[in-house]
């Protein structure tokens, strides 16, 4: 009351509610300890467990900062629920706000400033890191969760970042696998980190997906990484592989001089916009006849990859639009990069995965609807792959 009359703040640093909160929490902890010791007792085998003094720690709350005394037992089996063993921040909803700010790409310095302005509470980078680390168990459980037995489409692509490791900055590749399930909804089913992108690691990624329950994939959409189609067919031999046409066009134009690009593209469009595979191949032969001598590498890459570039010709417009490019997963990557672009280098692989996981969780909230015209798309897939789809149909 004296503090109120003196005009002291109720909350914030040195708030006058701090002693009251301290008294309440310590009384609750004493009650928890008494209940814990009572539960350990029995008529036949009395417990030797006893109280063993108190531990002290500085905790922060909206009511101010104070020293909290937590009772201990001899066996060390007491796990307080009111205030956890390593909990030093007592504010309902604050941890969720910190994690939300972190998921938006804010640095610990920015988050600390926001919390100071909103709540009048100073949090160190270590404390903020401990709060955000609480999502790691949920992330690990999500990364290893069981998967559906069948995915109609898989989109596989990589993102590249810098991470600090042993005093130096190194490159990291984050492997992402986006699946389209039987309901036509998107689902990120795999997220892995490695030193670089390669077909060998993709093989291990696909093998793990299989151990998590994926038995069959109808169509896998990938970029032009060497050995990628072979890696997919090793794990899912029945899967059809579609190389991204957009990636192929970009790689082709790297070998064409600027003044010829417009004319070259005019002759290239009939190749991938043809009505069927036969017409597309004839147009490719015409492209070779006109440009093959001047740009042999650009044209020959289409012949080398034609088997997997032409997969989409077997389907109508609805399915073609869904599989001719890896734009579905690249769209996800664009949203992730909006958040991660401010990070020069992550402190660890775990910090990298943690932030991407939080961004993906926010993005997945928007994935409530199936792909456009999915009923028609799935009907056509069922006609083509009935024997493979029927065993996995959900009743």
UniProtKB/TrEMBL annotation:
Keywords: DNA recombination, DNA-binding, Transposable element, Transposition. Residues 39-79 are annotated as: Disordered. Pfam families: Transposase_mut. One of its GO terms (biological process) is DNA transposition. One of its GO terms (molecular function) is DNA binding. Belongs to the transposase mutator family. Required for the transposition of the insertion element. This is Mutator family transposase. It comes from Pontibacter qinzhouensis.
